[in-house]
Amino acid sequence: MDNDVNALTLGEWTFGQARGLRHVAMVAVGTSIGGGLILNGALVRGDRGYGGEVGHTTVDLDGPDCVCGSRGCVKVYASGADIARQARSLLRADRTSILLELVGGDPNRIDAPQVFAAAAQGDPVAVTVVARAAQALGAGVGNLINLYNPELILLGGSVMEAGEILMEPVVRWARFYAFEAAFDRTRIVRSTLSKESSVQGAAALFLYERSRGRLG
User: Fold this and answer.
1) Which of 14, 26, 58, 214 can pair with 9 through a Cys bridge, CB separation 3.0 to 4.6 Å?
2) E strand or H helix at 191
């Protein structure tokens, strides 16, 4: 019916923390990174449905290749799959990381939650990866603020379940990259919805389309 993150954005706008607002952005950080935008009370899809794809905005001109065909996207640093990939890469040079203990010595078993768990214990490899992810995601959020000046930015998805170890530096970097006056008027919060809330998002999508006369 629509992009899943668009549905989640509408879910928050219809039933959740964004209710009653006119300018809202959602960033869903999971296996990949998706985005949703509501501006002037309307969902932004763009000409071909690519509106709001903050995960594929460039934050490093010489960064790694991305599946979208570009390079240095927010996604290649901050998605769950790429957090694990970066940790595996760094482990080639550092075999003392406690990450190896967490996965029984098999780097192929590393996932994002394990990286955050190791970072919480001060592991240098994990701390480096989380710091990169936070800066890239913070830059993406800062770009959203500068481009669209939303009232609220919601950060959701499985990666954001890491909590303050990621949320705090993301907000700090967003402040660094955004216009100060715009940042000060933008609330950045974790979404109350998850991928499991897709039914609620689909219901919000139906209500949204019907309100605009596009459904019988």
Assistant:
1) 26
2) none
How is domain 4-211 classified at the CATH fold level? Nucleotidyltransferase; domain 5 (3.30.420)
- Say if pTM beats, i.e. exceeds, 0.70: yes
* CB contact at 8 A, 52 and 35: yes
Q: How far apart are CA 203 and CA 118, in angstroms?
A: 39
Are 108 and 88 within 8 A, CB to CB? yes
- For 148: left if phi > 0, alpha if psi spans -120 to 50, otherwise beta; the answer is alpha
Q: Are 73 and 55 in contact (CB under 8 A)?
A: yes
Could you read off the pLDDT of 27-40 as tens digits, one per residue?
999 999 999 999 99
Could you tell me the end-to-end alpha-carbon distance of the chain, in angstroms, rounded to an integer?
16
CA angle, residues 67, 137, 101, in degrees to nearest 5 = 80
Structure tokens at 27: 């960033």
Q: Are strands 33-39 and 24-29 parallel, antiparallel or unpaired?
A: antiparallel
- CA dihedral defined by 130, 55, 36, 140, rounded to 10 degrees? 60
**pLDDT tens across 173-185, in order?**
999 999 999 999 9
Region 82-93 average pLDDT: 95
Identify whether 4 is a catalytic site residue: yes
